[in-house]
Amino acid sequence: MFPERLKALRKKNGWTQREAAEATGMSYRGLQDLEAGKKPGYDSLLKLADGFEVSVDYLMGRTDDPRLHQLDE
């Protein structure tokens, strides 16, 4: 589920792998590996979620709602 979501988000933004890596703070090779099925680490998940402006839960397939939710203060 994760590699498919990652690739779909990248394509939705119209980015190449290199552009997505730059936008998310990932290495090009690291992004390639994740799209090929490598399991992401915590730091990678945070970078990707921030770069694509989605939740980690969405990236991991735990929800189909990509929106970020803010806690009330």
Automatic annotation (TrEMBL):
GO molecular function: DNA binding
PROSITE patterns in UniProt: HTH_CROC1
One Pfam short name: HTH_3
CDD domains to which the protein is assigned, alphabetical: HTH_XRE
Keywords: DNA-binding
Highest taxon listed in the record's lineage: Bacteria
Keyword flag DNA-binding: yes
The UniProt record lists the keyword Disulfide bond: no
InterPro entries in the record: Cro/C1-type_HTH (IPR001387), Lambda_DNA-bd_dom_sf (IPR010982)
SMART domains: HTH_XRE
Domain HTH cro/C1-type: residue ranges: 6-59
PANTHER family named among the record's database cross-references: HTH-TYPE TRANSCRIPTIONAL REGULATOR XRE, TRACRIPTIONAL REGULATORY PROTEIN-RELATED-RELATED
Protein name, per record: Helix-turn-helix domain-containing protein
Source organism (scientific name): Intestinimonas massiliensis (ex Afouda et al. 2020)
